[in-house]
Amino acid sequence: MRSNEKSLKTEILAGISTFLACFYIIIVNPAILAEAGMPFSAVLTATVLVSAFGSLMMGLYAKNPIVVAPGMGINAFFTYTAVMGFGLTFEEALGAVFWSGVIFLVLSVFKTREKIIQAIPPAIRHAVSAGIGLFICFIGFQNAHFIIGNEATLVGMAAFKDPISLTFLAGLLFTGGLLVRKISGAIIFGILFTTALAWPIGRWWGDASAVNFGIPTLVNFSGVLAMPDFSLVGKADILGSLRVGYIPVIFVFTFTILFDGISTFVGLSEASGLKDPDGSPQNMRKSLLTDSLATLFAGLVGSSSGTAYIESAVGIEEGGRTGWTAVTAGLLFLPFMFFSPLLSIIPSIASSIALVLVGSFMVIPLTQIRWKDPQEALPSFLTIVLIPFTYSLSVGISFGFISWTVLLLLTGKASQINPILAVISLLSLFFLWI
């Protein structure tokens, strides 16, 4: 076999591995956005379109072996904060996603994103990642009905002997075992395993009526194939999302995709050695342009923001070094537009496993915060705990910025306050006030 043929085979196999590592988003993203009142089948179609578009553009234009798909964490913000918290309709939230993509695109074109990145303390960036991880982990436990409401303590654990709790825990531990063994596609295999375990609930034991909208069973088969549902395409309320009260939503969408994308590119480049001569991640500018256009596209077709996936490291470890890895993964997403009836059988306790596990991965940056330095520790801690405790990314992020700036003022270190950070802190205070 000639070397170029062997190289292409390696890239294709790497793309398949990356796809398996990211495939869970096809199931989890529709499950989360459906709670915002969006049709599951339509979100599934949008998820596939964003994943294919972003990954193909990343491969063909940016020439990087990195998959782009709707981001975890930001989809939770879309549903639980933007729609349920701020009161946006899902059409307005899609409009906010669109505008965040426009802002990110402008920042990328005019090369101002680097200045913004430099203005934000690394500790706050690490804290935001960890806070989002705890947030989606908390949502995962809730959606699995493992954590439930409690009048005395606000929240509590469901009965341990409940079949739903036992099935969820079994699936979580099984998936964890696959991850420990470094099985490619561990999360999707865990989701399928948990779905199989959940089939008897309501049929042979237990009753799911209380957690499944009156339906006594968790797993309900309605078919295998259906034509793609494009009903969300063009539904974004682009003008309606520009109300003053919605600005914090656009701000958080923009902030999150900006730092999530850059941190992912930096992390992957460090792990793989894919760097430009100046030491920056390979084709960084084109990669960020791809990220921004994927987000803009997501708002137009009916999904939360697109972003680069850290799971692309799986394909890189398999030898993927060129854009053909991302192209292969992007093409593999497309057929799943036709499987919405089959994928809709997956119960929340199965898809929630991905939320819990991905959330656990996102707290890794905690180790990079200097906890013995109060200047870093207090703002970081407030950011981390307030994101899940207030059920809002915007609140946690805002308090992180504000507390960092106030502590510098109180300790006579005003000269160390970056002007951009000062502006962001003032905007954060304004967002909290309104």
Automatic annotation (TrEMBL):
Location in or out of the cell: Endomembrane system
InterPro entries: Azg-like, NCS2
Transmembrane listed as a keyword: yes
Transmembrane segments: 12-34, 40-60, 67-87, 93-111, 123-144, 164-180, 187-205, 211-232, 244-268, 288-310, 322-343, 349-369, 381-410, 416-433
Domain of life, source organism: Bacteria
Membrane topology: Multi-pass membrane protein
Location, primary (coarse class): membrane
Alphabetical keyword list: Membrane, Transmembrane, Transmembrane helix, Transport
The keyword Metal-binding belongs to this UniProt entry's keyword annotation: no
Family stated for the protein in its record: Belongs to the nucleobase:cation symporter-2 (NCS2) (TC 2.A.40) family. Azg-like subfamily.
Protein name: NCS2 family permease
Organism of derivation: Algoriphagus taiwanensis
